[in-house]
Amino acid sequence: MDLEFTSLARVEAAVVSCRTCPRLVAWREHVAATKRASFQEWEYWGRPVPGFGDPKARIVTVGLAPAAHGANRTGRMFTGDRSGDWLFASLHRVGIANQPTATHVGDGLELRGLWMSAPVKCAPPQNKPTIEERDACQRFLVHELALLDARVIVALGAFGWDAVLRVLRWDGRKPRFGHAAEATAASGHVLLGCYHPSQHNTFTGRLTEDMTDAVFQRAKQLAGLS
Fold it and tell me: Which domain holds residue 84?
């Protein structure tokens, strides 16, 4: 393990200061400068967004990337957007989050037994990072998982599923993503699939509250959390 990444705090510092991908740097800073009309009073974060949560987590959630006017604005994963509203409400219902909402850093949110991360730490244009950007960011997730004692990983969407398989260096035939899909890696990690809580999935009913809750209840069971 690289010396600079011997703690989660060091990973966070490296994430926040990263300027490796010119396209992502330009986009995240452009969004932060122009802002959305409804957030004109906000001072946008406009930097890479580090993982957060319980450092003793037994469960890790992995999404795709920060939302341009969500985490890229607030500086915390899934905070301040519709996907996060759905996700944190579920985490609260199953007893992982102490409150059902996440609006800004310092809002009192606490996660119990869970760490939240993403394979790509910067908001990408059209929510579509390139392969090169994905690969450049992979080292951060590698070190987060190495520093955490988590054994259950919930992949929110196919992008997160595939990213975790690469990080775990999956051997043999790779399991296909699906909602509630399960796969156990040679490392002992159990990977669970969950449809991403995007509005495309939640507004159409492809992902329901009960479906989301069931995945996290299963994650708690596998992780040995009461």
Answer: 3-223
